[in-house]
Amino acid sequence: xxxxxxxxxxxxxxxxxxxxxxxxxxxxxxxxxxxxxxxxxxxxxxxxxxxxxxxxxxxxxxxxxxxxxxxxxxxxxxxxxxxxxxxxxxxxxxxxxxxxxxxxxxxxxxxxxxxxxxxxxxxxxxxxxxxxxxxxxxxxxxxxxxxxxxxxxxxxxxxxxxxxxxxxxxxxxxxxxxxxxxxxxxxxxxxxxxxxxxxxxxxxxxxxxxxxxxxxxxxxxxxxxxxxxxxxxxxxxxxxxxxxxxxxxxxxxxxxxxxxxxxxxxxxxxxxxxxxxxxxxxxxxxxxxxxxxxxxxxxxxxxxxxxxxxxxxxxxxxxxxxxxxxxxxxxxxxxxxxxxxxxxxxxxxxxxxxxxxxxxxxxxxxxxxxxxxxxxxxxxxxxxxxxxxxxxxxxxxxxxxxxxxxxxxxxxxxxxxxxxxxxxxxxxxxxxxxxxxxxxxxxxxxxxxxxxxxxxxxxxxxxxxxxxxxxxxxxxxxxxxxxxxxxxxxxxx
Length: 493
Hints:
Distance between the termini: 59 Å
Shape: globular
CATH architecture of the largest domain: 3-Layer(aba) Sandwich
CATH superfamily of the largest domain: Mur-like, catalytic domain
Number of domains: 3
CATH topology of the largest domain: UDP-N-acetylmuramoyl-L-alanine:D-glutamate ligase
Number of strands: 23
């Protein structure tokens, strides 16, 4: 996507937008933006065909949610907001232009909401949602009440957006369509840079150049934070420092400005020792497991330190960090089987998540229900995705979720499942969504861990898996329906 399609952040404010309508308001990014506008007291409507969990909250805040897409939804509207998932020939987009309404990409509307604030923008190939959440919680713990919009919901808080009273605005910056280049951050955090979104960038060098451009948009009075352990982040830091820019790094590398050591991860969480500028910050603890979680948290600690906030606030916030929905989210236990949901779809984040889930599984088996996200990624990174899925003991694979993409014969999950290095009896392609819960109920044993992983829709399957496992338990006790091999319910007695 060409950056010329986006208008750089300027003097437009959220209040200038008038009555706002969001097309596809149920998605986590769009629903977060709608929540932000509603909590600022702005009139908001949206259209969404699927009843996503976030919509009830928007209605409770006064939002008008239409369950159809039609021109009448735009009556009385001043500004229409769309995401990159919405095609330009969408009927509401066409009608908005016909009426001469202001039409903004989600990132442009978000930039308007950030006008006049000190923006902390978190970017990176993976880890940015969790890192944005951590930075937000640290600033909240420090008492500065930031505004925020995150591409996920902080668990237990139940929200991915908030209009705060403080001067800071924390935002997850999306590189997938180059829209992060319209922001003008005071602080830029870049977690890592790896090959992804090559349908937009073509190659890794062009992607790295875009991240460098994003970093150069940082306020001269602000600073840039990146990871010294990540090759792409290290190259970026070297380039920017040679240009005289203020860059700070974190990681286990000996030359990192904030250095982690003695990292220990278990099912109970992760802890490490932190040192910055030769000063010991003591031990940082998180109640969520995974070395990568520790690394993400270090960027939040370093950001708070450089903003002059108390390190104690960072320690306290991270010590009670509840996690982010769809990021290592525990859904429940049924018939002795523990079910998680995880958003990872890039092979690096998949590998880290599955290695952590192996720690949780212990002596049990790890069963993965995976829905690949985007045909181009599944094709271009097939070997890497297959290797990550090979960490599992059992795999239930769904077809690729790729709205707007045309799948050619032999593309998608048909090719991917053949590449996964598991025996044939330990991997299966589920022809339909409804086949997957029954397949898991057939395969899972007490003590196993099951994770739904991948594209956004798979997050809706966790409850269905728990229901199928519960039905299996009732059937075994002779008190309820069982699941037949064909996926249908049958009564046993």
